[in-house]
Amino acid sequence: ETGVTQSPTHLIKTRGQQVTLRCSSQSGHNTVSWYQQALGQGPQFIFQYYREEENGRGNFPPRFSGLQFPNYSSELNVNALELDDSALYLCASSSPREGNGELFFGEGSRLTVL
Amino acid sequence: AQSVTQPDIHITVSEGASLELRCNYSYGATPYLFWYVQSPGQGLQLLLKYFSGDTLVQGIKGFEAEFKRSQSSFNLRKPSVHWSDAAEYFCAVGGNAGGTSYGKLTFGQGTILTVHP
C-alpha cells in the first residue's frame, strides 16, 4: 500500500508567477485535503476534494484553486504568487470507509516565493 | 468557529521525565480531536484520535490523551520521554462532514518539544 506522495518537494518562484503542486492519494482513498503551513505555524485548511468536486474551503482567496482527477490524485494551483504564499503545502488523503476518514499526510511541498 | 489553543510554544524535558502537552479547543458540536507529530522537514503523523466513547485514548509511541469536555481540553501525555520524541506536536479539532471524511481540521500553533539527555 503506497502512502501519500507529493511533488515537487521543494521549489522557488518569484512574485506574480503561478505554481502547480501535485498529490497522489493513498490507495483506495477518494478524498484529498490541502493545507498550508507557514513557518512556525500550524497547518491551515485550504480546501478539500471529494469525487472530483470541491467539498469545503477555508479562508483562502480564489487564486488558490484545485483539481481532483478520476484516479483521486489532486493538484493545487496558486496564481499571482505573493511573498506570504511561501510555506509548506501539505496534502492529506482519506476515505470515509476507513477509520472514520482519518487523514494521511504527505511530506509536503515547500514553496519559496522571492 | 472552531479553534485550538496550545498554550506552550516550547517545552523542554529531560529524557525519562514525564510529559504533558496542553490543548484547549472551541467547537460548537461534538468534536473529533487529534494529536499529530511533525519532525523537521516531514509531514504530519497521527499519534492518536478521539471520536467518542472512552475519554482516555491510547496512541502510538506510548502516548495517551484525555478528553475533558467540561474543560474543553485534550491534553497529551507520556510517562517517560525518549530522545526520539523531540519534534513538534500539533493538536487539531474537526467534525463529521456529513457522510464524507472529517472535512476541515483546525490545528493549533504547535508545541516544540526538546529532550535533554
Tell me what you see in this structure.
In chain A, 0% of the residues lie in helices and 50% in strands. Chain A is an all-beta fold. In chain A, strand 4 and strand 5 form a beta hairpin. By secondary structure, chain B is mainly beta. Chain B is 0% helix and 49% strand. Chain B is built from no helices and twelve strands. Chain B has strands at 3-5, 10-14, 19-21, 24-26, 32-38, 45-50, 56-58, 64-68, 73-78, 87-94, 106-107, 111-116. In chain B, strand 5 and strand 6 form a beta hairpin. Chain B is globular and about 40 Å long. Residues 97-101 of chain B have low confidence and may be disordered. At the A-B interface, strand 4, strand 5, strand 9 and strand 10 of A face strand 6 and strand 11 of B.
Write a concise keyword list for the protein shown above.
heterodimer; A: 114 residues; mainly beta; 7-stranded mixed β-sheet; 4-stranded antiparallel β-sheet; 11 strands; 50% strand; globular; B: 117 residues; 6-stranded mixed β-sheet; 0% helix
The gross shape of chain A turns out to be globular
Which value, in Å, is the CA radius of gyration of chain A?
Answer: 13 Å
Instruction: Name the quaternary structure.
Output: heterodimer
Distance between the termini of chain A: 37 Å
Helical stretch count of chain B?
A: 0
Low-confidence stretches of chain A: none
SSE sequence of chain A, one letter per element: EEEEEEEEEEE
Structural class of chain B: mainly beta
How does the helix and strand content of chain A classify structurally?
Answer: mainly beta
Strand tally of chain A is 11
What is the helical fraction of chain A, as a range of percent? under 10%
Which stretches of chain B of 5+ consecutive residues score pLDDT under 50?
A: 97-101
Average residue pLDDT of chain A:
92
Q: What is the element string of chain B, with H for helices and E for strands? A: EEEEEEEEEEEE
What is the beta-strand fraction of chain A?
over 45%
Average the pLDDT over all residues of chain B and give the rounded result.
90
Largest binding interface between chains: A-B, 29 and 26 residues
User: What sort of overall outline of chain B do the alpha carbons produce when their principal axes are compared?
Assistant: globular
